[in-house]
Design a protein that fits this description.
By secondary structure, this protein is of the alpha+beta class. It contains 5 helices and 9 strands; from the N terminus they run αααβααββββββββ. The strands form 2 sheets. Strands 2-9-8-4-6 form a 5-stranded mixed sheet, with no helix packed on it. Strands 1-3-7-5 form a 4-stranded antiparallel sheet. The longest helix is centred in the first third of the chain and has 10 residues. The mean pLDDT is 88.
Length: 197
């Protein structure tokens, strides 16, 4: 929950209004990608009141470890008494405030789901906005609007469909975008990495 509150309101521009620089890429860089800068610069004031958070608990992380083929003995180091994997997550299925859309198989669509929890008071309506390399990928969010009655801990789920239109040029197998949920009070941004490897 804390990770989400720090990530989703983070800024992708520096204090001069320029994209965060990628010092490893040097002057040729047009700015840091989420692979270099993560979600961006933490904005403490906004992190104290993010509006919504993505929450993942112990069960979610255990399922992630199972998905990554950790053994019961290995997981037992972190989860005493762990008996064995009973469920796994689909790739990218951890309820996390970022997305990785692996489009490398080139067939069909990739669907990822997320659940957000309201942590602020008062009714709010959030609308989704997608920023993506439109010539390469089509992204749709369902539902595109989330309405909250105003109760803390109210939860809503949504799904995102990522559909590759074509492969990027050689050497450009990673592209980036974002999904933004915005109300009249709060703005949450989730970085998206599109991968065609």
């Amino acid at each position: 929950m804390i990770r989400s509150a720090l990530m989703t309101p983070a800024a992708t521009l520096d204090d001069q209004g320029r994209p965060i620089a990628d010092s490893a890429a040097g002057a040729r860089s047009g700015g840091a990608t989420p692979m270099a800068a993560g979600a961006g610069f933490v904005r403490p004031q906004q992190a104290m009141d993010p509006g919504l958070v993505y929450d993942a608990g112990e069960k979610d992380y255990v399922e992630l470890l199972c998905t990554m083929n950790y053994t019961a003995a290995q997981i037992g180091v972190f989860v005493p008494g762990f008996a064995g994997c009973t469920a796994t997550l689909p790739g990218g299925g951890l309820n996390y405030p970022s997305f990785v859309a692996d489009l490398s198989d080139g067939a069909g669509a990739r669907v990822l789901a997320r659940t957000v929890t309201k942590v602020s008071e008062g009714p709010e309506t959030y609308t989704a906005k997608v920023v993506a390399p439109d010539h390469l990928v089509e992204v749709s969010v369902t539902p595109a609007t989330l309405e909250f009655a105003g109760h803390r801990n109210e939860m809503k789920s949504y799904s995102v469909v990522f559909r590759s239109k074509k492969r990027p040029a050689a050497g450009m197998a990673q592209q980036f975008g974002e999904i933004v949920w915005e109300s009249n009070v709060h703005r949450l941004r989730s970085p998206v990495a599109f991968i065609w490897d």
